[in-house]
Amino acid sequence: MAILEIRNVSKFFGGLAANSDVSFEVNEGMIMGLIGPNGAGKTTLFNCITGYYPPSKGEVVFDGKRMNGLQPDKVCKLGMARTWQKVRPLAKMTLLDNVMVGALCRTNSLKVAREMAMEQIGVVRLEHKAGFLAGGLPIGERKKLEVARVLATRPKLLLLDEVMGGLNPAESEDIIKLILDIKAQGKITQMVIEHDMKAIMRISDRIVVLNSGEKLAEGEPQEIVNNPEVVAAYLGTE
Ligand SMILES: Nc1ncnc2c1ncn2[C@@H]1O[C@H](COP(=O)(O)OP(=O)(O)O)[C@@H](O)[C@H]1O
Ligand SMILES: [Mg+2]
What we know:
Order of helices and strands: EEEHEEHEHHHEHEHEEHH
Structural class: alpha/beta
CATH class of the largest domain: Alpha Beta
Largest sheet: 6 strands, mixed
Helix content: 25-40%
Shape: globular
CATH architecture of the largest domain: 3-Layer(aba) Sandwich
Bound molecules: adenosine-5'-diphosphate, magnesium ion
Radius of gyration: 17 Å
CATH topology of the largest domain: Rossmann fold
Distance between the termini: 34 Å
Number of strands: 10
Oligomer: single chain
């Protein structure tokens, strides 16, 4: 069953079509990879999906509901959570407090939020850093903080925007394992934007390729790597 339907979504910035008539569905429980060269419109599509801004045309239906420029707290309550390509922790708060902010989407109790936050900090294996200020954490741990914070909102759909960007191979491997663990638990659907082709091939059930705002291809990882148009537009430039 589709948890997310993207129907003919276009997003214009002045004369520029950052997304142009993009359609696809994401089925419950799967990992959908989203790839494409820089400027292809991947982050813009995440912004349209999460209601950060409404699409100029088309619609996004999540869990049977139309998302249309909804406020972020509403989006979170509906069960959608995303990370940002540029990590934005609350630098002067501790790791624990940052993750509690996510949990407070589901509860008004600080005690419950703290428990929920600690659970997710355990999932990303940063218990030993819970009391550290977020601003002082190295990039790999700040990325994990972001993942813990979105997990603490108890999402149905998780959207990860280049969550491995800037990480070393060992840190990337940790994130890959985390994404696969989340899938194995079977409760959360994931959409993943990632530049590392090996990583995206390993984790994705299906992949959508964007190029200049348009959907260039969609299919299983093996179909995508063997698609001559994709190779020419994207893989060939690696
Ligand atoms: N808020 C915005 N205002 C104007 N142009 C934007 C805005 N956001 C993105 N763009 C443009 O839209 C295009 C797609 O950007 P983006 O979605 O960030 O691509 P990607 O994430 O695939 O690298 C780029 O040309 C970018 O400059
Ligand atoms: Mg981007």
